[in-house]
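note to self: dont lose this again. the chain is below, predicted strucutre after it. 82 aa total, dont forget to put it in the shared folder this time
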Amino acid sequence: MVLHIGKDTIVPLKDVVFILDYKEARTNDDTNKALKKLSDAAHNIFIEKHNIKSVVVARFLNKFFIYYSPISPATLYKRSKT
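---
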């Protein structure tokens, strides 16, 4: 199964490590530091630059990918369960 995370971007559900609320991740110091550290070593993909609502971290072939999605974490969660 795949998860549609915005525009024409889909990610295999089995590769999704976690999904974060973007605003919460930016305001929490520990989460923000961890995300910055991970983003230095990962491929960062901005689905939209200005309307980011969630951060989707996926791992594929031992590489991390961070997707910045315009879709809320709650909606992504619901999509993952259908």
